[in-house]
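ARCHIVE CARD
SHELF: 3
SLOT: left
DATA:
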Amino acid sequence: MLGGHNGAGARHGRVAALAVAAGMWLASGAAAAGEIYLRGGFGLDRPGDTAFMDEDCSSTAPAALYGCGTGGDGAPYRSAGGFGTVPAVGLGLGYAAGAARFEALVEYRPAFAFRGRTNFLAPGRQQSVSANLSSVSGMLAGFVDLGAPGLPELGRLAPFVGAGIGVVRTRIGKTTMTFPTTTTTVPGGTRTGLAWMATAGVAVALGERVTLDLAWRYTDLGAVRTKRGPGRVVWRDGSQEPRPLDLAPTRARLAGHGVRLSLRYVMGGF
């Protein structure tokens, strides 16, 4: 299942790359005079539901966390859940010429959480899962302003579309799995991989140099990955000694929709 997600992400990433290349081509063909601008803003993302599963469910040394069986809900062993609402802050440096803009964009998601349930036990029994995450992404993005003659006018609102592609480094902390009598801990991990986004929004000029952007954005940050490492099972009543585990990696996909509110400030032209 995860392989299919990754294949789709790669295809979408290639589409985003083509869109960025198109934006660069438009910029190169636009008027010679352009403007350098700085962007700062914040936003909220709502990643879609996902599931942590083994990279190799048949692994024995190290041991697969979930294994290849079927859980009490009839699905493969996994931890299914979501990341909730994710805050993001961003900073960009861009060049605008004519209808095209080209931008180097960095976004930081300082703190968000996975909350879900495993399916080892029958539905309704305690088997909750939690972990905290953060990510930093860097992308090259292209935008096209759509205020061309012949298109519908929206008053002071200037619509735009864009896409970007780059890299992301995502970190997940220790995962805690709570069962009726035991608690299992899984080591965290970091992963650097492909990231891409597509966006559409409107801009409002607040002055000669300042523009407010409000945009929808779809962002694909690829996979979140726990690393191979030591975990353990603890009996909360102390009836047994903690059991150490040598665990193989697991992963889940991190992608979803969000909104962005930002200000662009023109620093100068050339």
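SLOT: right
DATA:
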Amino acid sequence: MKTETWSSRTTFLFATISCSVGLGNLWRFPYVAGENGGGAFVLVYLFFVFSIGVPLVMAELAIARRGHASPVATTAAISAEESGHSRWQIIGWMSVLAPLLALGFYSVVGGWSLDYLLQAASGAFVDADADRAGKLFTNVLASPLRMIASFSIMVVSVAIVVGSGLSKGIERIAKFMMPALFALLFSLAIYSNIVGDSARAWDFLFNTDFSKLSANGILIALGQSLFSIAVGTGALLAYGAYLSDDISIPQAAWAIGLADTFAALLAGLVIFPMVFGSGLDAGEGPGLIFVTLPLAFSVMPAGQFVAALFFLLVFLAAFTSGLGMMEPFVSWAEERKTLSRPKAALLTGALVWVLGLAAVFSFNIWKDFTPLDMIEQLRGLTVFSILDYVVSNFMLPFNALLIALMAGWAINSERMRQDIGIKSDFAWRAWQLSTRLLAPTAVTCVFLFNVLD
């Protein structure tokens, strides 16, 4: 049982929001919105966040607070209490292993942002053309030692903070980094709208033309909405275990959903005015941040300074999300009683580092190594791509589906309502509709689409 609790509701929200506001908001949301019609995609995304995502956040936090233990111990205990068996413990294991695997490749992307922060500060983007911008990223990927250095800094830093514990580590960082992250986002959004093409960016993000949104885009919006707010990632089950009874779970869930959505929209208002103002393509894909934006920075007033601030923002988002990814495994390892928390964090960091090495080599030494060609869905994928595919397309949606089924159907209804703290009958019926029907149906569609595509 966890004996520590969050020092305040504000601190808990800072930590959880900073965990959910990660590269999914700053890196993935802008380019998937760009690829799927802009405003129509955003509207569907918002609908899914508040109709499905927020109710599932409530479910995870309630389950975690009831267990006051690691995701594995919590789900095992509640499963045994509610149904007499431990089948639902699979949620705990998925919530520990999925973020560990995810951090293996996520830390590499975080390392790119750190590398680009240093490049921006040194003036590497000044007067860059398309060829030079492409070569900057190619040079990063082609150098194993360079990538190892940058991602190692992130992994070691995350392990030190998590190993320091809740109050001395995660809380201290969250109190500083979450406000800093939003201050940077807001400042960059103001700057970008002043010097960039703000009219076209706002039209792109908020003018809804559903003719530009395909069925595929709707499923992408659903997946983005769920995992942007950390549903199924293990972070909520880990952080929720430290919740005290006086913190309102519905209020916290709505705050997380609103803050995460605000961050995603702000990221769009940072990136798209720059992109459109420089005559670049908003649907550039994953290269939008690391290839396209340096071109925009090269022609903008104070571009060198702004580029450094932007990649500092990206690194902060990656770092705070990394804390939430490492905590579930550390929490579980610490419960084994054979490891102190610092040693558990050291072990977890070492595992992540080894996974990260394989992900790094996927872009250079092992770029032609595709180890799982015998599996059709994984044919032709490098280690980095396999980790990304398995976690994002299988483990996270499957875990979210199981959480919806456990909360909506397996746990006693009245007990679940008590654990969440929903007082209104209407709100309770809406929550049940979401977790029992909407969420399982929607997540199953995303899961099948990802696996069968």
